[in-house]
Amino acid sequence: MNKLLTTIFAVAVSFVTVSAQAQDVKGDPKVGETKNAMCIGCHGIKGYQASFPEVYRVPMISGQSAKYIVSALNAYKKGDRKHPSMRAIAETLSDQDMADLAAYYSGHGATEGAAAATKTVKVPSPEVTALLGKTNCASCHGADFSKPIDPSYPKIGGQHADYLFAALKSYKVENNPKVGRGNAIMAGMAKQYTNAELKLLANYLSSVDGELKVVPQSKFR
Predict the structure, then answer these.
(1) Full set of structural domains in the chain with CATH
(2) Contact 149, 139 (CB under 8 A)
(3) How far apart, in whole angstroms, are the C-alpha atoms of residue 28 and residue 96?
(4) Cα–Cα distance for residue pair 100/26, rounded to 1 Å
(5) Distance separating alpha carbons of residues 42 and 60, to the nearest angstrom
(6) What is the DSSP string of 18-72?
(7) Cα angle 11, 134, 192; round to 5
(8) DSSP-assigned states of every residue in 107-139
(9) Partners of 213 in the β-ladder
(10) What tens-digit pLDDT sequence spans the chain (221 residues)?
């Protein structure tokens, strides 16, 4: 137990340090729009599916938290997230590039002055309620899983179910050079579930009204 706590503490300290450094770089959404050529071919097409390491719809990133986008890109760049295509892209990005892209996508598709739509509360089944409570998912991802307690955590409410399932499983992978995510906290959570249970969680989370969306790209450059 002491070893686990030490690992989690070390990860948290490292994460806070990276987050603090990222906060020093201010992103410009208008500049970010000119840098998204490598993003639009996947994230700007509704229903677009990745084919590695399995077939699933690529995540919706329009409306995602800017700090989370920067955190995820840095994880790919460092190799903590082992997706070859995303790592290759992230390695070409500077801190300023990441901040600009994150600023752009965090507000992408938002309608200025639009009234908040009334959301339908999706009540989980007793089985899913128990699974959500097992690791208290809402304690980090917040109300409707769209109001994280820290903006460097992702909004997951309404995200594609197949992507969520693939992402959650990836935290359980060890010693694979091309697949997996190196996050001690999420790994500790995900390993408490079977894959069948993770699929139930992913299906429920995707059914919740969220702020994420795919904004079709009007043109390709």
Answers:
(1) 19-108+121-207 (1.10.760.10)
(2) yes
(3) 9
(4) 7
(5) 10
(6) HHHHHHTSPP-HHHHHTSTHHHHHHHTSTT-EE-SSS-EEPPP-BT--HHHHHHH
(7) 60
(8) TTT--TTPPPPPPPP-PPPHHHHHHHHHTTTHH
(9) 62
(10) 444 444 444 444 454 444 445 457 999 999 999 999 999 999 999 999 999 889 999 999 999 999 999 999 999 999 999 999 999 999 999 999 999 999 999 999 886 655 555 667 789 999 999 999 999 999 999 999 999 999 999 999 999 999 999 999 999 999 999 999 999 999 999 999 999 999 999 999 999 999 999 999 876 55
The Cα 36–Cα 221 span in angstroms is 9
Place of tokens 């990836």: 170
Q: Would you give the DSSP letter of residue 93?
A: -
